[in-house]
Design brief:
Elements (H helix, E strand, L loop, with lengths): L1 H25 L3 H4 L2 H10 L4 H4 L4 E13 L1 H5 L3 E11 L4 E14 L2 E15 L6 E12 L2 E6 L2 E4 L5 E13 L4 E12 L13 E12 L1
Antiparallel strand pairs: 1-2, 1-10, 2-3, 3-4, 4-5, 4-6, 5-8, 6-7, 8-9, 9-10
């Protein structure tokens, strides 16, 4: 019996020592698992969301398309292709701040309509499918409409005055990468009527249909 116990202990002790050593190598201590270094290593393995990386970003854009004069503006000028400048700030996943500046002069039979505006508003994404996002936009702005028109058989220019107004529109953006976004946009601008001293008020509205390109930084 003693002989068997001696042989059994001869093999048991090395096995126990080997198992203990392997366990010590395979299982790091609780302190190591909860250390800052381990936490940083785990964080570096977690991918950053594409949406989170695009928050609080600034973008500048350029729009080109057709400007359609409406109401009184349409009688004094022709529709034509115009340029718009944009600034966009991504405030949240669903809402952006959007600013638009534009100016154009539309002539017709010696008369003209000139529209200049700084439109400030909010762009709300209706939904987002991958990198495609339809949106609606609206807000207020500062406008400076001016006209040259026939009054009592004479061509008379209106006085340049600043007025308030509103705008609204819709469109869709397609993000190509983290830097460039292209899209389509339609917008209606309606400056409030501008009173004149010795001539009729300057009144009218206009719409824009354009393609846009944004650069994000």
């Amino acid at each position: 019996m003693k002989k068997y116990l001696k042989n059994f202990s001869k093999y048991l002790i090395p096995v126990v020592v080997l198992a203990a050593g392997t366990s010590a190598l395979a299982k790091p201590s609780i302190k190591k698992l909860t250390s800052d270094e381990k936490s940083q290593n785990v964080d570096s393995d977690i991918p950053v969301s594409r949406n989170m990386s695009l928050l609080n970003k600034h973008s500048v854009g350029l729009g080109i398309g057709q400007t359609f004069l409406m109401s009184e503006f349409a009688d004094k000028g022709e529709d034509k292709i115009t340029w718009d400048l944009f600034y966009n700030y991504s405030a949240s996943h669903s809402f952006d701040f959007l600013a638009n500046f534009h100016t154009s002069k539309h002539k017709y039979l010696g008369q003209y309509t000139q529209v200049t505006g700084l439109a400030l508003g909010i762009k709300a994404k209706v939904f987002q499918f991958d990198n495609f996002a339809p949106f609606i936009t609206g807000g207020f702005g500062f406008y400076q409409p001016k006209m040259k028109r026939v009054i009592d058989d004479e061509l008379v220019e209106s006085k340049t005055k600043l007025t308030f107004g509103y705008h609204f529109g819709a469109g869709a953006d397609l993000r190509l990468n983290n830097k460039f976004t292209i899209g389509l946009m339609a917008a209606l601008h309606n400056p409030f009527d501008v009173k004149q001293d010795l001539q009729p008020e300057v009144e009218g509205s206009y719409a824009k249909l354009m393609m846009t390109t944004f650069y994000t930084f």
